[in-house]
Amino acid sequence: MSGASELASRYSAELSRSGAALPDALVTALQAIADSAGAKSLELHGRAIANRAVDLAGRAPILGAAYLEAIPAVLAYISPGDLDTWAGQAGLIDQGTRRSAAHAARWLAETPALLGLVSLPVTTRLAAIAGRLAASANDAASTCIENAVPLLTGLGPLEREPFVVLAEALTRAAWPDAVLAFERTPDLVGIVGSADRSRLLELAAAVVTRPGDFARFSAAVEGLASIAPERHSELLDLALRLAEANAPAAVSFLVSAPRLTAMLSSEQFVHWYDVGVRLLDDERHAESIDTYFRLESSLAADTLTLLSPRVELPQLGEMLRLYAQALTGRPVQVRSARVLAERGIGWAKGDSATTEGTAVYLPPFIERFDTRDANTRAYKVCVTHQAGRIEFGSFDYRHGVDGAHLTSTVALRAASIGIDPSAGGLAPVPEMHRYYELFEDRALVAALFSLVEDARIDARVDLEYPGVRRARRDVHDHEVRRRPDILGLGLRDVFAENLLRASLGRADAVRWPAPLAATMARGLALLRIVTRAGATVQDSAEVTARLHDLAAGIANVNAKTLVTTWVAIDDADVDAALEAPEPLPIDIATVRTLGSSTFQVPYAAPPAPDFRGSSSRSSCRRSRRSPRPPRGRRAAISS
Amino acid sequence: MSLASKPRNDFKRMQIEEFRLHEEPFYLPVSDEVELFDAAYEQNVPVLLKGPTGCGKTRFVEYMSWRLHRHIADQDDEGVPLITVACHEDLTASDLVGRYLLEGEETRWIDGPLTRAVKVGAICYLDEVVEARKDTTVLIHPLADYRRHLPIEKRGELLEAADGFLLVMSYNPGYQSALKDLKHSTRQRFIAIEFDYPPRDQEIEIIRTEAGCSAEVAESLAKLAEKVRNLRQHGLGEGVSTRLLVYAGKLVAQGISPRRACQSAIVWALTDDVELQRTIGEVVASIFDD
Where are the domains positioned within chain B? Predict the structure, then answer.
């Protein structure tokens, strides 16, 4: 008989009273000690182990069984001398009830895996947490024990102990929050990079002092997802510093962080933080510190305003509404363009200004310039332009009516494609739709109309509101710097892009193949018509029609395949272009002479500048009119 | 022109019924208001002038007084005096008719402006008449119909108006409350001439002439006026008056920058609402370049 069996036999009768299998389990456990630590160790610790087994089995048979069954696995992580300490963890959980005994047994069964992740003292602290939860609610203890292994497995080695510190803090502050922590911590720490996770957990432990704190902290941390990961470390450092003096303020700081980081540079951000921290030096401000970091105090808002160049629409909305009202004489509303974007209206972007004639939609904020004044002026440029569309008749197009400078050709165009100008459709059709019906390429004509009409409005705004001119020029210059590289476009796209640049007052930014200059010069000359005094939307429509004729004749080959010199168009050439013979179409044969491939890319409209948005997209959506009769290629028409 | 070089006028003292306009006041007719007034004067029909503040009602009465004076002066050198009473909430019938004053041991009757006008055949202009106390209507009614009588109760007299007397009243329907509106029994004793701010071209001409500023500045001020008037009923109780535009034009003519002149004469004068001030300031900045 081995030493283990001999020792076990002395406890067999006593253990049998608690469970028939217990004596055998004791033999197995003692044999494991002998195998792992030697006969001497068995001699040294065997009795204590057997006595602990008898004690636990006496409290609850499943406890004794769990203890003995776990010993072989536990011995892989701790020495036989620590077994009693480990077994003592069961006593932290067992409250003398069947449920708590079951929790304690489950705990002993889980500990081999736990000991693979954390030290024995840490498992003891976890057991104490489970015990405190068991005293409050059995379900809470279950959650803790079930989640402990997977949770700690998901955390890095350096994050595990900080989690235990957090769980201890939560258990003291509000046990339901501790349950939440066992459920949500893996997702939460995943929001920040691995290098920041332990500090995130340290911060959590520092700020949870009252029920609900952990939920608020979790929400704040979720907000960090919207912040660039490289800024997380700095944020956590600042929050930890703050938490030492004022825990609620630290959480408020994290809650405000997404807005602050969006508005402030790193340097400005720290400056704003320091202003708040200085409040800590004065006890009179104790309560206002949290308000400051929640961005709810006037000091916080004023400091933010002082530091950030960003201007938000709500700050100016009412003034801009009254301003638009004054300019147009109509009850114009001012709304965020994001409203349109959220409605999924295809022609509207959330960051571009636009109007449909009754409301002006503006970007929710502007921060493209370095100062608040400049960004405020940019808002004013947006509103003046959009109000200009209303004031100067962009929505007053009447089909077939002559402009101040050009005679309408729509009747000729309609006749050439077999549309009876007097015929009605299935439903009433807006005038602008009747106009678009005349053109094969709606996207092209819509983009051209948009830039032509915008050029007319800008010219008119310059005339009527000279005080806005300088700010508008700044905005135009900013837009021109963001224009796409023309060598990445098709040649027809370049034509439209050049017109747009010219419409921004930057004809110097136009680039066009030198041998084809006559076409571009004519396009620019046509565009100038709408900048003349008295030009109306009818002129814009007619200029657009003629530009469409020009553009439609340009083969949309990839610009970079042309072997040519790209030049600006001479002002004198533009002046003379309307008197010169109409240039020939730039067809495939023509571009081939410049070494281009014959492959044409689909037409892509030039992106509209943000302050202009689109004046035509809403009108160019498919009308409810009956479909046009099929037709062949149209001839260019001008009068 | 510097203050030092400005010609000085010595003050003149005169009885109110002696006040006549000998120089033509600048007035640009907007419609047929001159013909209407002429006809009313000929027929002794009292006139009610309605319109917003600063649109030219008072200037119109002055102009008509001068015009009628010039017309009549051919036959009668005395012409048509103009007696103007700025009505206010403490103005009573006694203030208009007259009262007894203590002089030593005696009392002496002093005629009020209305009595004087009735006696000398003047135009009596009651400016903002709805501001006056209700007891004034007792006087206005018999004077404003066919009777042309002014009862002076304290003296037990009834005065019949001299030839040339005409009662003219003005009021601004825009800011009168229901409590201060004119009663129909009063209203319907007058013909009414409605005034509004003049059309842009005429307003430019008025500003240029009155303020002595350039046509370009006058044009911009008239444009500004249109824009600011668009804010009526949307924060502003009244639009900017032609009078304020003239003031702004005068400041510009004196070398003040247009933006600063407009801020002082228009933005701050019009409203104390910060948001509206900012809005109007932005409109000013849009219309006038730096």
Answer: 16-194, 200-287
